[in-house]
Write a structure and sequence with these properties.
By secondary structure, the protein is α+β, with helices and mostly antiparallel strands. The protein is built from six helices and eleven strands. The strands form three sheets. A four-stranded mixed beta sheet has the order 1-7-6-5. Strands 9-10-8-11 form a four-stranded antiparallel beta sheet. Strands 2-3-4 form a three-stranded mixed beta sheet. The radius of gyration is 24 Å and the shape is elongated. It starts with 7 loop residues before the first strand and ends with a strand. α1 crosses α2. The longest helix has 13 residues.
Length: 210
C-alpha cells in the first residue's frame, strides 16, 4: 500500500504562504481550528509546518512584530513523504507529528492525517465491517499463519493483524470473522482453534462502522 491511496489532496488542505505576516497566519490558524498547517511559497514549494502555539508565543510573549513573515517559525521543513512512499514509512514518520506532508518535485500536493493512518489499522483489524474479533496465540511462531488459515478454511476472514513479530517462541494474531454466526458455529470455531494448538485469549463482537 502506498501513500498515494490515502493522502488528503491539496485543494482540501488549509495552507499559508511563508511571506504572510505572523498576524495573517494566526488569523488563518484561528479560523481553521487546526493547531498546525503546512506552509508553501508563492510557487507552491513546501517550506515546512507552522504551529498555532508558536505563532501565539511570537505575538504575545516574544513581542514579535505582527507584520514580519513566518520564516523564523517554520518547523519540519525536511520531514515529508512522497506519493509512492510505502505506508510503513508514513506510519513511522507521522508518530510525532500532527500530520505529514506529501511532496512531489519539491511541491506540496497534500497531507496524510492520523485519521487516515488509523483507518488503515482499523481495516486490518476488520473493524469497518464488524464481526467476531478473536485474539489467539500459539507457541509455534514459524508457520503459524499457514496453520491458522488451514484451521479456518471455509471461514470468511474480514481482517487479520499479527503481534509479537520477530518472536521465535510465540506470536499473537487478531482475526475478525464475519458476523451472523450461531453459538454452535462459534463454538465449532473455538474447538477447531484449540484442537490445532491455538490458545484463545479474547473474543469481542464488533459492530460494523461502515
Amino acid at each position: 500500500m502506498f501513500v498515494r491511496d490515502l493522502y488528503l489532496d491539496l485543494h482540501e488542505v488549509v495552507t499559508v504562504n511563508n511571506n504572510q505576516s505572523v498576524q495573517d497566519v494566526y488569523d488563518t490558524l484561528k479560523k481553521s481550528g487546526y493547531r498546525c498547517i503546512p506552509v508553501v511559497n508563492e510557487e507552491g514549494h513546501y517550506k515546512g509546518m507552522v504551529y498555532k502555539v508558536h505563532v501565539m508565543e511570537d505575538i504575545y510573549e516574544n513581542n514579535g512584530a505582527e507584520k514580519n513573515n513566518i520564516d523564523h517559525l517554520l518547523k519540519h521543513h525536511d520531514l515529508y513523504i512522497h506519493q509512492r512512499s510505502p505506508f510503513l514509512n508514513a506510519l513511522l514518520e507521522i508518530k510525532a507529528l500532527p500530520f505529514i506532508s506529501v511532496v512531489e518535485d519539491g511541491k506540496l500536493i497534500g497531507i496524510l492525517t492520523h485519521n487516515k493512518v488509523e483507518s488503515v489499522l482499523e481495516d486490518a483489524f476488520g473493524l469497518h465491517t464488524g464481526g467476531i474479533n478473536i485474539t489467539i496465540s500459539s507457541i509455534e511462531a514459524k508457520g503459524m499463519i499457514e496453520k491458522l488459515t488451514k484451521t479456518l478454511r471455509g471461514e470468511n476472514i474480514e481482517g487479520m493483524f499479527t503481534l509479537d513479530n520477530g518472536s521465535v517462541v510465540a506470536r499473537r494474531v487478531v482475526i475478525t470473522l464475519e458476523s451472523g454466526k450461531s453459538e454452535a458455529e462459534i463454538q465449532d470455531i473455538k474447538d477447531r482453534l484449540e484442537n490445532n494448538g491455538f490458545r484463545i485469549l479474547h473474543i469481542d463482537y464488533l459492530e460494523s462502522r461502515q
